[in-house]
Specification:
The chain is α+β, with helices and mostly antiparallel strands. 23% of the residues lie in helices and 38% in strands. The N terminus and C terminus are likely disordered.
């Protein structure tokens, strides 16, 4: 069949008209037809790239063709038919025709047709689903701080999703249950705006806690789009008084520090002594109470009143001034006891050494005496030893003789 010399798009369009007319009037159904095109549905996000592939099992040298949702020919074999630079040829063989569409828009969604120009014409359809990528979520209602014990309602909104996105709330790593999402369609567009509300009862432990709204959507990887804001909670002071040392001694300098954990920070500190006035040498300076020289008359309970505009609180501290002389005497007694114990141990060791020395000396003298007895009347050494060994027996004989 010879084609006229008209520009390619014109004769391709004419051929398409004839082919589709033949296909419409054909009621033939092919089972396991090796010339039947095979395609697959595709999903792509706005701005992405989608690849459309059409294959046949066998080729009879007929050309494959891709058409868009408006039945405009995109590619006929290797020949471009529509001037759209977003559409490019990926592969063209006798059994395959693959094209790509880049920078996909929502308007590109729909059914695409692959055709092979046999008699009759065979076709296959591929549905392209375009996902509208949701915008980054925005949290409102968190701009102002909340007072401890109060409630706050937060709203999270995400726009431009298709299908509608789902929103999730988190406090730190803990997922929270918000109200069901509200979905609103965007006029003249196939996208949706989604919003969700979360109501919290706050305590001072929620101060600086991070509240997160995350978007869940097929076009996004988990955690791709989220917004985070820290809660600010206002609470009254929690007061604690810290001493400079645990052993305040008479005559020394000393101070107390008042810590008021609150939000906002404390605006005023007031020092008082319970059941009396502050000592003359005690000077209050904001969060500190300074003692120029401690005295036992300073003993007592000291109070620190803290206010931060949200509320006020008070802390207590019992001051007990130590007597440095008594502490030194006690320390001297301890050293004396230790010295006495050491002296006793040394004495016992010396006694043991003396007893041991006397024992060794006595046994050495006895040996020498026995040896001397054996050698008195002996003419030689052997006789002396024999006499020494038997000397005791001889003595016994003499004793019996005199009796």
């Amino acid at each position: 069949m010879a084609f006229p010399s008209a520009p390619a798009p014109l004769w391709i369009a004419g051929l398409m008209t004839l082919a589709f007319a033949a296909a419409v009037h054909s009621n033939v159904v092919f089972d396991d037809d090796p010339l039947q095109p095979v395609t697959s549905d595709e999903m792509v996000s706005v701005g992405g790239t989608v690849k459309l592939t059409c294959r046949v099992a066998e080729s009879d040298n007929s050309s494959l063709q891709w058409s868009n949702t408006a039945q405009q020919t995109l590619y006929f074999g290797e020949k471009r038919a529509l001037r759209d630079n977003r559409i490019q040829l990926h592969r063209s063989t006798p059994t395959e025709l693959s094209i790509t569409i880049s920078e996909v828009q929502l308007s590109d969604e729909g059914e695409y047709t692959c055709s092979i120009f046999t008699m009759p014409v065979r076709t296959a359809r591929a549905t392209v689903t375009v996902l509208g990528v949701p915008g980054k979520p925005h949290i409102s209602g968190i701009e102002n701080p909340v007072q401890e014990g109060g409630t706050v309602t937060l709203t999270c909104t995400s726009t431009g999703s298709k299908p509608p996105a789902r929103l999730h709330w988190f406090r730190g790593d803990e997922e929270l249950e918000g109200r069901p999402d509200v979905v609103e369609s965007v006029p003249d567009e196939p996208t949706y705006n989604v919003s969700s509300e979360l109501t919290l009862e706050v305590s001072r432990s929620d101060d600086n806690q991070v509240i997160t709204c995350a978007v869940d959507h097929p076009s996004l990887a988990p955690g791709d789009k989220r917004s985070e804001h820290a809660l600010r909670v206002l609470y009254s002071p929690n007061v604690q008084i810290l001493p400079e040392s645990d052993l305040p001694r008479e005559g020394e300098k000393f101070h107390l520090q008042c810590l008021g954990n609150s939000n906002p920070k404390p605006s005023s500190y007031i020092w008082e002594k319970k059941d009396g006035e502050l000592p003359p040498l005690a000077k209050a300076n904001g969060a500190f109470l300074h003692f120029e020289m401690l005295n036992k008359t300073d003993n007592g309970v000291y109070l620190c009143f803290v206010d931060n505009g949200i509320g006020s609180s008070v802390g207590e501290y019992m001051l007990l001034v130590q007597d440095p002389t008594a502490m030194s005497t006690s320390s001297g007694v301890d050293h004396a006891v230790i010295g006495g114990v050491v002296a006793v141990i040394v004495f016992i060791l010396l006694c043991l050494l003396i007893v041991l020395g006397r024992y060794l000396i006595r046994h050495k003298g006895t040996y020498l005496t026995h040896e001397a007895k054996g050698s008195d009347d002996a003419p030689d050494a052997d006789t002396a030893i024999i006499n020494a060994e038997g000397g005791h027996s001889g003595a016994e004989d003499k004793k019996e003789y005199f009796i």
